[in-house]
Amino acid sequence: MTKVDLEKLEQRVKSLPSVQNEALMDIIRGMYQGKTLLGEKGLLTQLVKDLTEMALQGEMDAHLQENSLEEGCNRRNGFKKKTVKGSGGSFELEVPRDRNSSFEPQIVKKRQTVLNDELDNKILALYSLGSSYNDITSHLQEIYGVDVSAATISAVTDRIMPQITEWRSRPLESLYTILFLDGMFFKARQDGKVITKVLYNIMGINQTGYKEILGFYASESEGAHFWLTVLNDLKARGVQDIIIACVDGLNGFPEAINSVFPKTEIQLCVIHQIRGSLKHIASKNQKEFMVDLKTVYKAETKDLAEYNLLKLEEKWGSKYPMVIKSWQRNWDNLSSYFKYSAEIRKLIYTTNPIEGFHRQVRKYTKTKGSFNSENALFKLVFCAIRRVKSGISQSKIGH
């Protein structure tokens, strides 16, 4: 920019009110001198400080005018300094005080240390990506010149706890066509010890064919008894019936479901059943066994599948009796999908839909060796759910 251009710009700025003139010209001159805009000594940071203090002075003027008739004639009583943080940087703010200590500033409230929601949103965005407290602190210091303590980050992220409580207790639809129920494991600190936490997750498909995460629950171990608690909670939130429930082979799980929703059909995950079977098959026989097993679970009809299961028993029953008996014992719940179309079969014969959701959540939680508390686990999982939610809620059967 030439000297003539700069003079024209100065003339244009001078047409603004005087306070704005001086502030804007200071920034413009500073930019030409190579000064930074953000950070503790940034040009914009100083401007925000000046404007905020002007606003506080205006609030004090209005407060003293409104209370001028009070006994004792309230008046100014100096300033109180405190450090506040904004997206532009940190700065020391002079907050006016009154003699009666009745002044309640609004633009920067008492005990408020963050100037606006923008910095909070940046902290939450970084946190939801799985960034550690140290990474968040380093990022904000490097980009914005703001020093944010671990306590501040924790306080900011704690603000979503009411949202989590509300989301986990929200009313649900009365009928879900399909429910996927599965757990994922995390490490968390409790009473000074690192223990394993099981996070129980429920994915539902509603009557219009769209997927939705209905909720998550935490326990120290996976078991049918706790799943019973989860199912009763779903019922209390409005679920009256489920057509199909897709689950893994956890003992007692089908019975727990039918005790709460007696009309629900159970579909055990065929993939889990296959994996469990292969653990007991010698490696030299696995390939041949799988060829024969595919004729069972990939049969066109249930009758053909049962016929092929008999043939499987004839060939492998004497060598691997436990494997065959497991298929026979669980057959009623393993074969529910045969009564549906090929499209529905492909969807319900495995718990892959919710396991896919778990993989997405793991992208955001994988950096955590362990969580400091159950609430810390809930906060990050909830943030992860919100990030993957749009892809889930917009995903429809057959699309």
Report on the structure:
There is one protein chain. By secondary structure, the protein is α/β, with parallel strands linked by helices. It folds into two domains: 36-118, no CATH class; 174-393, no CATH class. It has 17 helices and seven strands. The chain has helices at residues 3-14, 18-32, 43-66, 117-128, 133-144, 150-158, 161-168, 224-236, 253-260, 270-278, 283-297, 302-316, 321-329, 331-334, 342-348, 352-365, 374-393, and strands at 76-86, 89-98, 175-190, 193-205, 211-219, 241-247, 265-268. It has a five-stranded mixed sheet with strand order 5-4-3-6-7, with helices on both faces. A hairpin with a 2-residue loop joins strand 3 and strand 4. Helix 16 packs across helix 17. It is elongated.
Radius of gyration: 31 Å
Tell me how many strands there are.
7
Mean pLDDT: 81
Question: What is the general shape?
Answer: elongated
Q: Please trace the helix and strand order, writing H or E for each element.
A: HHHEEHHHHEEEHEHEHHHHHHHH
Q: How much β-strand is present in the residues?
A: 15-25%
Supply the number of structural domains. 2
Write a brief caption for the model.
It is built from 17 helices and seven strands. Helix content is 52%, strand content 18%.
How would the blueprint of this fold be written?
Blueprint lengths: L2 H12 L3 H15 L10 H24 L9 E11 L2 E10 L18 H12 L4 H12 L5 H9 L2 H8 L6 E16 L2 E13 L5 E9 L4 H13 L4 E7 L5 H8 L4 E4 L1 H9 L4 H15 L4 H15 L4 H9 L1 H4 L7 H7 L3 H14 L8 H20 L6
Parallel strand pairs: 3-6, 6-7
Antiparallel strand pairs: 1-2, 3-4, 4-5
Helix pairs in contact: 8-9, 10-13, 11-12, 12-13, 16-17
